[in-house]
Amino acid sequence: MSTSFGSSVSRANGASSGVKSSLQTYLQEINRYPLLTAEEERELGWRIINDQCPEARDRMIKSNLRLVVAIAKKYSNRGLALTDLIEEGNIGLMRAVEGFDPAQGARFSTYGSWWIKQGIKRALMNANQPIHIPAYMVELIAKWKMHSRKLSAELGHEPSMEQLAESMDLPLKKVQIIKRAVKVFNAPNQAPRDMDGEAVGLDGLIADYRISTPEDRSLREEELGILRRLMETIDDREAEILRLRFGLDGSEPLTLKEIASEVGISRERVRQIIEESLERLNERLNDAKPSRFFRRDEPAFEEIHTEEQRPTSLRHDDRGIRAG
What we know:
flat; 324 residues; mainly alpha; Arc Repressor Mutant, subunit A
């Protein structure tokens, strides 16, 4: 089966009256594929891994096309047509199906959603930006804007660069670089355009991390369950520092400085323990999952992994366990 939106629509339109739009026809077509149970996902996953079964792969893809559409709709009106977002999401879905490991115990939507979102986000950045902003910088900008809004509300005025640097636990120079990136991106001659020719601001390309749907919360709980089980395999102190750093107990994530004060060790030692602990967790994941699905050589991993900022989450994805 081709996951190309255009190809799928062309086939569907052959039997269409021509009245309905290609998108409506496509949605009708994919609604014919039943959703999978957890047991069916595991069975298909093992057939794909052990037998490279094309029929199992095809069924897994078809049954999750509606997941792609649901995710793509969240990124509409940001510079690409919904049909283009769906097609890019379908490419991410294909990669997710190839990488799904049923031995991890998670539902496919937990693993697949990350790949689908990555495909869509990269397409938005590549299509919309005359200048290139790396994926890791987009994440930093999103966090910069979140801290800026929070401080503005608390202080009653726009925060200074020094206040932002303190809040984000980042060097002042790094915060200044982020602010310059925001200004350059939002300049009239650099801002991307939507389908109507209107400028799309940076907010349009960055997902609002404060908004979560019931599906998002469900996926996060499932991911946290996997992480908590893995953390039972490391030292108690290491596990506690990770919980404090990433707020795994539901509390606000702490900075390195705050953790150092609470546990009575230096900030540098806290950083070392976090790096060593994440390395051990990644090794355990690699023992249980084919290593080709963990590519730690990507720039985004190295940049985000070394930042001394207040993290918003601890993520388990194709590059292992990392700050998000």
